[in-house]
Amino acid sequence: MSHDDIFVPGKVGEEFLRLARSPRNIGSLANPSGKGWAQGQCGDSIEVSLRIEKDAITDIKVQPRGCVYTLVCASAMSELAQGLKVDHALNLEPQDVVIALGGLPEDHLHCARLAVNTLGEAIADYYSKFSPHLQQSRLP
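Request: output the structure for the sequence above.
Response:
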């Protein structure tokens, strides 16, 4: 067990503990509308796959690899993004994940950034596939 797997009372909230015990939306989607992967400064990574219908996230799966903080932040982000219109999901901030979890230790705030940034990568992939006017605007 690493130091990241030890819960220090007062350092994490009840929501953090709930998601640590029972993470949500773990896995990957077959034929996703968008898929993204990102690696954090610590070496942990998250993969996000999205199903988007009528400009809303109808399904989301995450595959976090790393410490329990990365797992919990990915799970929390997926719960926040589920059901949102794509443009609203793009407005999610790392602080939204931190608030949803009831706080994070300072040295693990980067896990919330990783989760939100990976969601952005998956949405960018969706746009690159399904938004022809965006593809044309990228042409020289």
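The beta strands are 34-39, 45-53, 56-65.
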